[in-house]
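Next comes the chain:
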Amino acid sequence: MNTARETTKAGYLSLTLRYKKPNLFALGTKVWVYNHGMVQYQEVNPTRGYLSCVTTKLHFGVDSASVIDSVKIMWPDHLVQVLTKVKANNLLAVNYEQPQPEPDDNPVYAAKPVFTPAANLFTYKHTDFSENDFKRQLLMLFMYSKTGPVIAKGDVNKDGLEDLFVSGDKNRPGKIYIQNTKGSFYEEPGSVIGDENTSATAAAAFIDVNGDGYTDLYVAKGGYSLFEPGTPALQDELYLNDGKGQLKPATGLLPDVSACSKSCVRPCDIDGDGDIDLFVGGRVIPGKYPMAPTSYILINDGKGHFSISSTPFDHIGMVTDAQWVDLDKDGRKDLVLCGEFMPITVFMNTPSGFIDKTSTWFNNMPKGFWFNLTVADIDGDGNDDIIAGNLGLNSCIHVSDKEPGELYYADFDNNGSIDPFFNFYIQGVSYPFVSRDELNEQIYPMRKKFNSYAAYAQATMKDIFSKEELDKAGKLSVTETRTLLLLNRNGKFVPADLPMEAQFSVVTNVIADDFNGDGKKDLLLLGNRSDNRLKLGSINSSYGCLLSGNGKGSFNYISQPLSGLCIKGDVKSATEIKVNNTKYIVVGVCNEALQFYKAQ
C-alpha cells in the first residue's frame, strides 16, 4: 500500500474538466496552478502511445498548503476561467459553462501574427521517388537522394519582377514561373528544366553568364542511390536566356563536373574581371560515403565558357553550403563554407589564390553536421555575421569536444565498398551506433565473432576491429550539433546563444530579415529531416521557428500562434519574394505542395 501522502502530509489538488460536445473530456485544455510564488502547469493530453492512454484527470502536488492561491484554466477555444482560494486535498470538478469563461488577455492570442498563410501564387505539388539509399550503403546516417524541391529566384524576362524556378519530380520536369503585374504567376510555356527520371536537381542559381543582360540558369545535379560518379546523370546543366525569357539548354560551356553529387551553387566574380564565376559544392560520392567529393571553382571567360580552377578546398569534405562575403573589406569576396563532419571554414580570396584563414577568424571552431550557412549583419555593426544550421539537440546523438561523435570508414571486409561506422559516447564510453543485426548484414563474418546480443552489448570499435584495421581506416568527427549564431566581433566570429527552440529540430534553411517591422533583423529557421537511418528516426519537431532580434545579437522565440507558421514536413528550400510590394515566403517541402506565407 502506498502511504506516502499520510507519511509526508503532502497536499494535492485533482481536477476533472467538462467541455463542449464532442470534446466532453476537454482534451487540449491547459491548467496553471499558482501557490506561494510557484507555478505548475499541465495539459489534458491522455494519449501515451499506440492504443494506450491515461486518465483525463489532472493531479497537482501542493506540499503542505491547505488553500491554493489560484487556478487558471484555458479551454481549447482559448477562453479562460480563474478560480481563487481553492481548497487543497480536493477533487475539483469544473464545467466549461459555470462560471462563464472570458477571453484571454494574453497578447499571443490577441495580436496579429507575423505571417499569415497565403493562397497559392501558383499550383505545385512535389512527388518524390521512393529511393532507399540505405540499400546501397546500409550504415549511413542520412539519405542523400531526396534533394527536391529546389527553388531559385531571378528576373527571367527583365520586367523588374522576381520569377521562380522550381525543380521537377517523378511526374514533371522543372519549370519557370513568371510573375505578372497582377501579382500572380504563370508557367513559362515550353520551359523544360532537367529530367528527374534520369538525374536529380540538387541546387540552382540564376546568373548572367555571358554578359548579355539576361538572366541564365545553372542547375547542379545530385542524388545518391540511382547514380554513378562520372556519368551524365551527375553532370550539371546550363540554360541560356534567349532574350525573350526563354531558357534553352546550352552545350559545350561547362567542363566535366560529374565526379559527385552537388549541394550548392554560389555565384561570385572571384577574379574581379567583371564576369560571374561559380563555386559548386561537392556533397557526396554515390556509393562511397563518407569519402570527400570534389568541390569546384568554375572560372568564366566572359562568354559563358567555364573552366575548372584548382583550389585548396577541392576535396575539403562533404560540403553542404557556402557563402561569398568580403570579410577583410579588400574588395574581393572570400569563401565561407561548411559541411558534414566539418568545421565552418574560411578561405580568403587573395590575388595569389585562396588561403585557409579559419584559425584567424575562429577560436576552436567545432565540427558539426552543418546543413545550412546564412550570412547577414545581425547586430547592425556593418560586419556580416553567420547563422549555421545544424542537427539540433533533439536526437539521440549527443557530442562535445571531450566526447565527440566519430566516424570510422574503410573497406573493412574487402568487398569493394566503404563501411562507415559512427560512434558516440554513452556514459563515458564510445559505442558504435550500428546494431548487431546491422553489423552482421554489413560484414557477414561478424556473426561468428558476436554470436549473441549479449556478446555485442558492450562492444566498442576496438572489440570489432583490430588496431591495424582501425589505424588504416579514415576517421571523421563531430563535436557540435547546435544551430549557432556567430557574431563578427573585432575580426573573430564569436558564438552567441540562440533560444532553445532553435535546437528542437534540424535546420536546413535560414532567412534573415526584419519580419515584424521593428527595424531589426529577425531569423526564420526551417528544417526537419525524416530521411534518416531508422535508429536515428525522424527529426521533425519544427513548424517554422521565428526568432525576433533585438538588433544587438540576441533573439527571442516567437510562439507558433504569434508567428502564424505551421510548416510540416522536410523543408528542402525556401526563399523570400516580393509580389505587388508585399513580402512572401515560399517554402519547398519534400513530397508536399509549395507553401506560401505573407509577411506583415
The mean pLDDT is 93.
